Amino acid sequence: MKKNTYLLSLIGLIGIVSSTWALPVGFDSSNPLTLAHLIQENSPWVYLTIFFGLGVLLAFTPCVLPMVPILSGIIVGQNSLSLSRAFKLSAAYVIGMALTYALAGMLAAYLGSTVQTLMQQPWIIGTFSVLFILMALSMLDIFHLRLPSSFNSRLSQLSQKSNNKSFISVALMGVISTLIVSPCVTAPLIGVLTYIGQEGQVLKGGLILFVMALGMGTPLLLVGAGYGSLLPNTGLWMIKIKQFFGLLMLGMAIWMLSRILPNTIINVLWALLLIMVSFYLGLFQNTTSNGQRVMQIFGSLALMISGIMLYSLVPTMVKNNANANTHTIAAPKEAPFIKVNTLEEINAQLIQAKQAHKPVFLEFYATWCSDCQAMEAHVFNQPDIIKTMNGLVSLKVNLSDNTPETREIKKKFAIYGLPEMIFFDSLGAERSGLTSAGYLNKAEMLSLLKKAK
Predict the structure, then answer these.
(1) Distance between CA atoms of 143 and 330, rounded to whole angstroms?
(2) Conformation bin of residue 235: beta by default, left when phi > 0, alpha when psi is -120 to 50
């Protein structure tokens, strides 16, 4: 037990030190070229340590946080678990995740798109959302996964005791989580992919991505092992914790479906989930326990919030119906984007802008990209952003589908993830220093647009 504790403490210390070193080096930089230059200008020990630290920092972003309930659900689903076994299961999950990042990154240099991007097709997201729902309902003891046996035997291996197949299954879940749950696009990731594309150092780039993914998995390793040492193995608490992670898994499924379903449907699903939460918190049960009464208070809050959400949807649906009947939809404020879909259209706009001596702003996005949706909802509709964009020729390129046209665009502009922003000056030259990848808040986007003008 002491050896395991010392090992976890050492891993945590390494993560803290490396992330502290990495923070001022470029974690806040949204320009992937900054980190590509970092690899070129430093020794392997320096950039590998920095990228491990960047991975630790990325673990506290939406890149990795969605994986916490998945790994936690696997750990909680074990019948009997020691700290050592919890650590090994967590390590299998993290290694599966790290290998996937490395292999997917090396393939991306040749495919012109990350494997995660290729996996964001609606039918794939829908299939795995259903899988998570089934797993969640099983954890809630609503039913047990038994049929068909060929399919359920794979899932049931995650809850078996100590055998090698269990570790392989957990590693495979790490692979699936990386490809489906975390289609993450960050400057460190695209920085490495840019380096691979420019220098052709595939194995070196793969090693960097593997080390960075290990850093991303370090907090997961600590969390998973912590559950193994802290959680009771039997009793009511274990049942409640299992139910808690079952509800989290349902939330994961809704979050994934939000990429492909309308907001109205997603809000209804969130409201229904909150009703389930209130039920599992014992809101409708008679109790004399003070602790249970506290849980009932939280259940009441969940039920109230769900009611408010459902009630707020009524005016929206009525308004949409009225607008559909009268055809008098009030146009919301939108950024002055010109939508282009082919490389020929992009080149034509670039030529026109050069002739008019105007700078160009290119935004590459996809409908399934959560960061793209967030920027559309909270950044590009802001008056300051719209006003500043009026001095630019702003082009919006939809890369949602994996077609010959989109692949040609990705190859031309070296697009490895979304969203990505590229700028050209009034003479038609690309301003690589302004290239940005991943989510940018209003202040960051406004600063970029002002520099581009």
Answers:
(1) 47
(2) left
DSSP 24: I
Q: Could you tell me if residue 133 is inside a domain?
A: yes
Q: Do residues 178 and 318 both lie within one domain?
A: no
The answer to whether position 269 is within a domain reads: no
8 Å CB contact between 185 and 371? yes
pLDDT per position as a tens digit, 78-122: 655 677 778 888 888 889 888 988 887 777 655 555 555 556 677
365-390 tens-digit pLDDT: 988 777 888 899 889 999 999 999 98
**Same domain assignment for residues 44 and 111:** yes
Q: Contact at 8 Å (CB) between 397 and 346?
A: yes
Q: Is the pLDDT of residue 329 over 50?
A: no
Asked if 317 and 187 sit in the same domain, the reply is no
pTM of the model: 0.59
CB-CB contact of 419 with 363 (8 Å): yes
Residues 215 and 364 in one domain: no
Which domain-ending residue is among 204, 237, 261?
A: 261
Average pLDDT, the chain: 76
Do 222 and 137 lie in one domain? The reply is yes
Whether residue 15 lies inside any domain: the answer is yes
Q: Are residues 93 and 236 in the same domain?
A: yes
Contact present, 233 and 98 (Cβ < 8 Å): no
Residue 271 contacts residue 89 (beta carbons within 8 Å) = no
- On whether the CB atoms of residues 260 and 122 are closer than 8 A, the answer is yes
Given a contact cutoff of 8 angstroms between Cβ atoms, the answer to whether 99 and 264 are in contact is no
The helix (run of H) or strand (run of E) holding residue 52 is helix 44-58
| Residue 402 located in a structural domain | yes
Question: Which of 235, 261, 287 finishes a domain?
Answer: 261
Range of the domain at 366: 337-452
Alpha carbon distances (Å) from 293 to 152, 237, 286, 296, 303: 38, 16, 9, 5, 15
Predicted pLDDT of residue 237: 60
DSSP character at residue 396: E
If asked whether residues 310 and 342 sit together in one domain, one would say no
Please indicate whether residue 439 or residue 275 has the higher confidence score (pLDDT): 275
Same domain for 112 and 44:
yes
pLDDT one-digit tens code per residue, 354-369: 999 999 999 999 887 7
The CA distances from residue 265 to 123, 129, 262, 277, 303, in Å, are 17, 15, 6, 18, 18
Place of tokens 């050492």: 10
Residue 436 in contact with residue 30, Cβ under 8 Å? yes
β-strands 393-398, 360-365: how paired?
parallel
* DSSP assigned state of 436: E
The type of residue at 382 is Q
